[in-house]
Fold:
Amino acid sequence: MKRVFSMLLALTLLISCVSVAAAEEKKSLTVWIPQYQFSKAEDAISDQDFWDGVFDKFEAENNCDVKVEILSWSDYNTTIYTGLLNEDGPDVVYVTDNYDLVKADLLLGLEGYLTEAEMDNYLLWNKGPVNAEGKHVIVPMDDGVAMGFVNKDILAEAGIEAFPEGWDEFLAACKTIQEKTGKQAFLQNWGATTGTSALMLAFWPYYFQAGGVMLDENGEISINNEAGLKTLEFIKSFADEGIFDETIVSEGESIDKFAAGELAFVVADLNKGNSFTNNGVNWEYFFSLKGPAGYGARTATDSFAVSKKTLSRGNDALAAKALVYITSGEVMDAFHSKIFYLPPFTKDAAYSENEAYTTLVGAHTADVYVVSEFEGKASFEKELQANIQMMFMGDLTPQEVLDNTMTYYSEQIKQ
Amino acid sequence: MSSIVPSAQRKISPRRRKQAWIGAAYIAPSFVLMSIFNVFPIFLSIYYSFTKYNMASPPVWIGLENYAKLFSNRVLSEALVNTVRYVLITVPLQTVFSLLIAAFIAERMKNRYGSFLRSVIFIPVIVSLIASATVWNIMYQPKGGLINQILNAFGFDSVNFLGKKALALPSVAAVAIWKGTGYYMVIYYAGIMNVPADVQEAAIVDGASPMQRFWHITLPILKPITYMIVTLGIIGSFQVFDLVYKMTGGGPGRSTYTVAYVIYTFAFQDKNYGYASAVAICLLIAILLIHLIQTLFFKEKEDR
Structure:
């Protein structure tokens, strides 16, 4: 009997030891983040080194291993979509277009993991999508409003004293600049290789200025309306008046021209200001043009999310904790100062490099629009871009652009 | 008698059986790999083409819905027309150029300069396609691009090669021709070197001119090679994607959309893998049909 008792005791001790060891076993996390460090300066810290350094503290506090993988922007959406489907995919991931990920239920609902205070800390929390259970699945970031840049020297050379913000005024000023200075007035990246890139800067802002709303009451894309027509007529007038240069076939060419002091106006991501300054361009921001319905500029909202696969991996709570950690004011302030400037997107963030931007956007908070996510967005935007290019070439009227795009969307893209 | 002989013939000796097993063992690795990576995906694509599938949830059988939808897809029709135009530009030109260059080197430059020229013409083949596309994009630039600088030097106006609807596709095709000619030239050159010397000598004795020898001896002997080159060219050109993706993004308008580019957008932008598979299967059938017609054409000529 004693022998049996001893054996049972030994067995119990053994099981306890194994359990303790298992409990103490380090959990691991994989984090996918795209490249954001584009500086070629010698002292520029790489994305990998930055994030590895950031996670040292988290690893020590949470007894875990965090593996950060820096991804290329090339086909980023496809990479993360297939990654999130995979059992060995990321636990925490940087997300750009989130519609397909939410529809395929690949992201973890965050309520229950984040405290009320943590959710309240995110400035754009309520702009993020919810899953079928009504739970928020992403932490939206503010990627910054696409700003207008004006070359003050060219404006002065053309004898234009104040920035011409109305649509008609702007067109007239462009013509004056080209006539008086012989320089290009305004270019947009209609030749971008993706429709999304082109529309971000060259369509949606005007659509918002014309009073357009992207999604109808059913949450479906709808641009075949008066605002859409006004927008296209306005864009077409740039081509009709010889303001757009048809030789611009790639994204960035207009920005390069502005940086070279050969262009009066450009709309670009706010980060471009530094390169313009470095090139000696005497520039200032303008928030947006003023269309029939008022001002309107777009902001992009990329985001961070947690994979739903963390539930089966048993590291869901840890992944959510990592999500809160990397989006905290402390970490993002460091990121924005060392890697890439973006506006703060949490209330506890303090870093702001660009006072002029903050002031200007602060005065127009009601005029900042988020480009919505919807089914087949990339293809829709590609189709709209192709049709607008055909409008420039004289093959389609503005109304035909709208009709053709919406018909193709409903018949072929929407599933 | 007839019942005895066949049964005796059917009997396979142990030695032959052993040889058969060894033969099967030799081809097994390639057979397994090809089945997994080539044959199985085709059947899987055929299955997906009858489904609605986004990879996140299991495929849902929808019968012929994808096929019915693609026949009314005007973007796909435009892409198909563009693809055929692209094939009609690239295949004849790269075949003719590679043949002429190979014949010239074989006939007139049987020395180290010929070897050097062969290497130079082959270099584009080993350059990455994306790198080639990037460099050609720069050369095509309307302002400051090399080609336009040359045109300007001769007093011509600059041409917006990639921004004009009529020029964009031929401009992309020109890059494909530049890149593919060296590869086919080497194949033709090897074929020309294998033309029996005694036949050539007999023709020279009979007083045949170089052109007559090329036309009546070299060209007919190279017919199987031409058949192979045209087949490879057609298949490769029907699949054109990377050049378009990098150089024009399908534009301006839809003037450089190709079938492979459209398949890419359906699959990887829309996550509509079932629909993309249906288009891919139609492309496969189209290529097979063209190959069949081409085989019949060559066979008919051979029979004559």
About this structure: Residues 263 and 269 of chain B are 10 Å apart (CA to CA). The mean pLDDT of chain B is 89. The beta strands of chain B are 51-52, 60-61.
